[in-house]
Amino acid sequence: MTSHDVVQHARRILREKRIGHTGTLDPLATGVLVLCIGKATRIAQYLEAGEKEYRAIMRLGITTDSLDAEGRILEIRPYTAPDHAQLYAVMQQFIGTIMQRPPAYSAVKIAGVPSYKLARQGKSRPHEPRPVTIHSIEVTAYEDPYVSITVKCAKGVYIRSLCADIGDLLCSGAHVTKLQRIRSGRFTLEGAVTLETLAGMAQSGSVAQAVMSVDEALADFPVLRITETETARVIHGNKIPCSDTTVRSGSGLVRLHSPAGTFLALARLNTGVIRPELVFHARP
User: Fold this and answer.
1) Stated pTM of the model
2) What are the strands, taking DSSP E only, across the chain?
3) What residues are labeled active site?
4) What is the pLDDT of residue 248?
5) I want to staple 145 with a disulfide (CB 3.0 to 4.6 A). Which of 44, 60, 63, 243 is the partner?
């Protein structure tokens, strides 16, 4: 099942056309896929920017054209099994901001066409490397030829490319046999529901148990409570001065709440001024 398939299923279950997701999962992959429903589709870009965490199993000694187990085998390489120290030393070279080439089988577009479609037609060409950030790589299990890892990274990292690059440095080659996203920003696997569970909730009228409010979804951004006069300006999309001395010298995004605690908007601080970016509270 692709990420698009998940969205289509959710649309039918929830009878809601406006549903989007925050970050494509490979068809091979399982795990957390955050869906934005209705007006929440407007915040997808802010949620997608959060840190991701993955569990993966890589198989040493075999390379494939898709960099995972669903692809065509390109090469079976003889190699000497690395020890734990060698694995650690190689993986440390990928910590931080590195240059990574997206896979041919990916959603990256070339002249408006998804790369995976061109790859299926035999028309793919190498993508230009791009900077990505990897915060940590931990080996959780190793029994040659299989290496289990947990990766924490920023948006835009391809775990398939990471494992293939690790395999190249080990002189063994590698591909991904299992991939699971266990966290996307503040959304975790433990807090997720399956499509089957969601369908059951829809039938019983308890979907609200699986849905988070926009305000809660954006809880990583600090709250700034504003006055009634400022509220009247914000709900019309107008900027206001930042009167909070603890934040007015900073920059970044904040959630604006009314004096009663109602979520009004997501706004950006800029040199003592607050500019609403997304207004959610209806105008009177």
Assistant:
1) 0.88
2) 19-21, 30-31, 35-37, 52-60, 62-64, 73-76, 96-100, 109-110, 113-114, 130-143, 146-153, 174-184, 187-188, 223-225, 240-241, 252-257, 263-270, 273-279
3) 26
4) 47
5) 60
